Amino acid sequence: MISGKTSLLPLFGYPTAAFKAPLIYNPWFDNKGIDAVVVPMGVTAADYPAVLKSVFRLTNVPGALVTMPHKIATLALLDECSTTVKIAGSCNAIVKRPDGTLLGDMFDGAGFSRGLRRKGFICAGAKCLVVGGGGVGSAIAASLAAEGAEMISLFDTSAESAEGLATRLRKHYPSIVVRTGSNDPKGYDLVVNATPLGLPGDPLPLDVTRLESATFVGEVVMKTEMTALLLAARERGCRFQIGTDMLFEMVPAYLEFFGYGAATAGELRALSHVVY
What we know:
Layout (H helix, E strand, L loop, with lengths): L6 E7 L7 H12 L3 E7 L5 H8 L7 E4 L13 E2 L1 H6 L4 E4 L5 E4 L2 H11 L8 E5 L3 H12 L4 E5 L3 H14 L4 E4 L9 E4 L22 E4 L8 H8 L4 E2 L1 H16 L6 H7 L5
């Protein structure tokens, strides 16, 4: 029940039809008795800067979620942002501080690394390969760096994207070895597919015959649970993480950012109305 005391958390993006966040957050808010609601707000790129500034003038809007196509454009609208945002070059969460200034963060990577931690994988000291240097790949690389990875190798079909991400990582984490140019998974502790490749008929993002059984394989594709990459990884004896784990693991990070306390991915899944 929305009342005069309800806090509104806009979810900015366009188009809104496929938004899943309200189906995860709102059942959890209702279950916990928290008077807050995530509201989809469809806004085009041209209108977004003005709409964001106007919406945050509302006194019952303490923060917002941001999705495509506005994650990059958000950076220019913030007063301050996290190191992860600076590396990823994009933002998916905004909180309004008591003085009215806007602080931005990015939790795609946090969701991924939280999932790894829950499954027993330790990022500290690990050698990691991230295939895909776009928004989600950049966020994951930033989180792996923050978790203390020893080496991060980056591969993207656009060498410019991979090199740009590598430059940002080296700037903020100079002690980490950062490499580019190869998607050969042999010899890594962690291999991440951060590309959209994963639906039936798609080519594999890397040579699965080079995967070693000790390697942990992570996926970001959510439209199918067991992608061809994960099927191959399982066959080779690898531990792995499915794409939707990243989604449900990042929500607790959002909730903490907005000041709504702790949640677990398990209870969020149990309460969720998301249907795949």
